[in-house]
Structure to design on (194 residues):
């Protein structure tokens, strides 16, 4: 049985991810992605009109997978502290994975960032609700001292959105990721009730 359109699209997205991970966006071409799936490049253009559209879909998939990982990690963790740590790990993992977009041409970056902004806002809003829920649970459990969980969640989510945009802009390297991890630990410690 021949693969469905959705299966072909997913295969192309996975191939693009692997190639991005290995070579970065500057060194891959639409031909590379198509040939790695054993497809003609015209098939790739059927699903993705241009390289920026392909990169956008990879970024969307990363965001969706991160939201699923957050929901899963949060629902499986016991207690607000563990839930916040699970959420932070999933976000940190996403930041590392989207760093594969470093090296886009200026034109690709402008196109992808303009299109992905809406997705990043969607991510931020869902993340805000999750963080607020965790903070409220932590206050109820007596482990967090937070006066206004909604405000803290909004600021936390906006900070993460800023990190996502900075990574997509190609401004973060390995040292910055280490600093983010340290900042995350400080933030978690600061929320704990004394």
């Amino acid at each position: 049985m021949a693969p469905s359109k959705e299966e072909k699209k997913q295969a192309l997205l996975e191939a693009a991810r692997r190639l991005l991970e290995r070579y970065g966006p500057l060194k891959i071409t639409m031909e590379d992605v198509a040939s790695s799936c054993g497809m003609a490049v015209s098939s790739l253009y059927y699903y993705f009109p241009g390289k920026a559209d392909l990169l956008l879909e990879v970024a969307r998939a990363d965001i969706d997978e991160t939201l699923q990982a957050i929901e899963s990690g949060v629902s499986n963790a016991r207690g607000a502290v563990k839930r916040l740590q699970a959420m932070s790990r999933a976000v940190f993992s996403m930041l590392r994975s989207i760093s594969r977009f470093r090296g886009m041409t200026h034109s690709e970056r402008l196109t992808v960032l303009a299109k992905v902004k809406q997705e990043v806002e969607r991510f931020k809003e869902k993340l805000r609700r999750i963080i607020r829920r965790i903070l409220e649970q932590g206050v109820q459990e007596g482990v967090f001292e937070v006066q206004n969980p909604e405000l803290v969640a909004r600021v936390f989510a906006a900070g993460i959105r800023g990190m996502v945009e900075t990574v997509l802009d190609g401004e973060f390297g390995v040292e910055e990721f280490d600093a983010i991890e340290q900042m995350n630990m400080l933030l978690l410690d600061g929320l704990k009730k004394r």
